[in-house]
Each structure stands twice: as structure tokens, then as C-alpha cells.
Amino acid sequence: MARSAAASGIDEGSAPATDSASTGAEVGSSAQRERRRRILDSTLALASKGGYDAVQMRTVAEKADVAVGTLYRYFPSKVHLLVTALAREFERVETRVDRAQLPGDTAVERLGHVLDMITFAMQRDPLLTEAMTRAFMFADASAAAEVEKVATIIDHLFAGAMVEVGEQASDEDLAIARVISDVWMSNLVQWLTRRASATDVANRLQLTIQLLLEGRPHRDAAK
After folding, report:
1. What is the pLDDT of residues 166-194, one digit of tens each?
2. Angle at which helices 198-213 and 171-192 cross, to 10°
3. pTM value?
4. Radius of gyration from C-alpha coordinates of the chain
5. Hey, how many other C-beta atoms are within 10 angstroms of the C-beta on 94?
6. Does 97 have pLDDT greater than 90?
7. How far apart are CA 80 and CA 147, in angstroms?
8. Cα gap 130→53, rounded to integer Å
9. What proportions of the chain, in percent to the nearest 5, are helix, strand and coil?
């Protein structure tokens, strides 16, 4: 996917050697946070229209009205950029989900609702979903922190739906959520590659949560 930007000698796939500032150091001021927001918004807009291939670092920089070197200081590669955008989207979902308002009296019903909500939303924007999913699946060790952040957000979102309001998710809850997350991501890839229909995905996810959650003793009963 990487290609050279002839005018500057900057490689589209990774950061130039002269831009070594860390991402964390660049998000302190309100101006920097606004710049970062524009970059991520531009990334999502490009991906939504053209998928993974449409997200080129120079194009993102132009759309966000930042210098290419500045973009690389925030995000050293296209994969870092897309996975960070994915993390932000899941953070927004987590913020919007009101556990007290989730329909369902059981963990299976509540988690099924959350999975349906997220899956249907991603299926409505397949090019954006393809871009972010490809970045997440193809990320190497250099983007390990960003990938782990996405995984952790998803784990807490799923585990939070599994437990009663006011309860904290246990390590076991989080471990089960990680398994469900892996199954969900695998089926999302199959849907993107047209090896599974939306109905197939919904049925497989429902079966997964039933097998993992039905019959688990209530926490109070287990004490």
C-alpha cells in the first residue's frame, strides 16, 4: 500500500525519520486536540467514501489542513491512524451505551442487543468498516498499543453489558468478553469478504453468547 510522495520524499506507509515526536506529546493543548480531531474526522470521511485504499497520508493531511510532517508526528503510519480512529469510534459507542437502559433481563439478552447495535452500525458503512477492520487485522507490533486499546474498549463494553447495573465486571467476565470479541471480529471479516451474510453473522454471535453465558450462576448465588 505504501507509495512515495515525490514532492517531499515521504513514504505513505510510515513516518519519515525526521518526525520522531511521540503521539502522546502532541495532544496536550486545545489546538493540538482540535488538530487531532480534524485528522481523525478526515480519515473517517475518506475511508467511508473509498475504503482502505482511499486513506493516504498526504490526502488526509490536505483534508485536515495540516502539514504532512505534522500528521506523521501524531500518527507514524496509516495503520496507526485507522486503528486510532477505530478506538475513538468505540469510545463514543461506550459513552452512548446506558447500561441502565439496555433492554433484556439476562446477560445474553443485554449483550445480544449491544452486539446487534454495533454490528448493524458497521454494516451500514461497509467501506469505513473495511478500512478500519483491515488496519486492525494487519497491524504489526509497532501498533500494538493502539490495537490493545481497541481490544480493551470492546472488552469493557461487552463485559459491562453482561453484568447487572452497579456491578463491576470480573476478570472472568472480561476474559469471556475477549473471546466473544474475537468471534465477532472474525465474523465481521467474513461478512466483509462476502463469505457470510448479515444473517449468518447475527446467528453465529447469538449462538456464541448463548454457549458462553447461558447457565452461568448469578454472581450473588456464587458467593
Report:
1. 899 999 999 999 999 999 999 999 999 99
2. 160
3. 0.79
4. 19
5. 14
6. no
7. 9
8. 10
9. 70, 0, 25
pLDDT, average across residues 115-139: 93
Residues facing residue 5 across a β-bridge: 10
Predicted confidence (pLDDT) at residue 21 exceeds the cutoff of 50: no
User: Hey, which residues does 107 pair with through a beta bridge?
Assistant: none
Count, in order, helices (H) and strands (E) of the chain: 10, 2
Q: Give the chain's mean pLDDT.
A: 85
In whole angstroms, give the CA distance from residue 147 to residue 87. 8
Helices (H), 24-124: 30-50, 57-64, 68-74, 78-96, 107-123
Helix (H) / strand (E) element for 144: namely: helix 144-162
CB 68 within 8 A of CB 81: no
Q: Mention every residue, 6+ apart, whose C-beta is less than 8 A from residue 217.
A: none
Beta bridge partners of 57: none
Report the distance separating Cα 47 and Cα 126, nearest Å.
10
Nearest to 24 by CA among 149, 152, 157: 149
